[in-house]
TrEMBL record:
Molecular function (Gene Ontology), one example: hydrolase activity
InterPro entries linked to this entry: Calcineurin-like_PHP (IPR004843), DNA_Repair-Maintenance_Comp (IPR050535), Metallo-depent_PP-like (IPR029052)
Protein name according to UniProt: Metallophosphoesterase
UniProt domain Calcineurin-like phosphoesterase: residue ranges: 4-210
Pfam families membership: Metallophos
Amino acid sequence: MSKPFGVSSDHHFHSFTAFATVNDKGVNSRLQATLDAMREHAAAVKAAGGNKLFLAGDTFHKRGEVAPSVLNPVMDLFRELVAEGFEIYVIPGNHDLERNESMRVGNAVTALEALGVKVAHEPMVVDLSDDHKVVLFPWYATTKDLIEAMMSWRDELTFDEREFDQEPWLDAVIHAPIDGVLPHLPEHGLTHEGLSGTGFNRVFCGHYHHHRHMGDEVYSVGALTHQTWGDVNSKAGYLIVTDDQVKHYETTAPKFMDVDNVEDEEGLLEVNGNFVRVKIEVATESELETIRLGLLGYGAAGVVIHAMKKTVMTRATTPAPSGGHSIENSIKEFVTKRSLPAAAHALCVDILKEAQAA
């Protein structure tokens, strides 16, 4: 029987500017919230009886450039965790890499090796017990290369363990875009059925910022915390994994959330400690200020109000675009063809709606 272990992903350690302040130690408040969330994760794993933490990619946010004011606080945290007895294993995600290939020299997470953190620049096997292993796979430029690597390692490990009465239990940690985690994103051809077909008992996948059990024991880990408005309604947090159970837990870090009704007193209780966005038809600056102060009074950590002009009904109609394509569909096709992130699509749709309401 193996000890419980933790899995988290897409930490995106960075000095985000939205709603941020700087504390007396020079640390960005948004960065500090993510560091605190990582500390929460470690504490939960320790309380469960474990000491291994697996990070499933995108530890850092800015590709090819990590500021000292980000790197040093991150190094301080991981130094403390290692000193407390945690064994930490990290795979590089695409944001950690200077280029699109996983190479030690171009991987920002390499800096953590000096602290005793193990970084999987190539596939790495971690023994949890005699018959339970976790295999770490770094970022691959194509999903085809990833699947081939997973199948090759599965075959090799199964062959090596034939002296056992049964095949070893194998978990995999990867960083890749699984189709269906976020339905509005274009597909890349990597399905949970395909990952299950590699022969691993469980697969824990970073990359998309929404936690979801995809079926066939394939899990999208989700981001540790919310980071932008593109994360609204996504499920963030960390996993604690045992031999027979995978449980997701949220952290106390602020979330990005939309408020649809500023008069719903019960619903407004949820804004406490979170970053809030409101879209509302208003007439005066006084109304805007009243709404903003009201949300802050409910404990919102930050407020953004998108004020739209009140809609005036007329008889005029707008002809549908030729070719049977709506503007919304045209936006979706544009985002899909250019492989832009979900946040770009969401932002375009928001701008369109505001323009239509003006």
